[in-house]
Amino acid sequence: MLRCLLLLILIGTQSLIPASRRTLFIAPLYIEYTSVSDETFAREAQELKRRLGNSPAVKVGFTAFLPGRFPDVEATLKEVDLIVGRAEANGLPVHIAVVTGFFHGHNELRENAIREDVRNAQWFADGTIAPPKELVSADRVPGSAWITPSRYAQHLRTEIEDSVRKVGAHLVKTMQRAPNTLVSVSGDGEVELSFERSSEGLQADYSPFAIAEFRDWVQSGRYDGDRTPASDENRDGHTFNKDFDQQFHTWELRYFNNSGPISYSEYVSLKEKLPRSGARFIEGGFDAPRSPQAGKQYWETWQRFRVRMVGNYVRDFAEWLSIGGRIPESRFFSHQIPADFLFGNRDHARLHTSASPLQTAFIEPLGSIGVTAYNTFNGRRHFKTASKDLFDAIARSGKDWGVLEYNPSVPSTTDEEYYLRELRTLNKYRPRIIVPFAWATPPEHTSVEVKGTAFESALRKFIQEVGRE
Question: DSSP letter at 336?
Answer without folding.
Answer: B
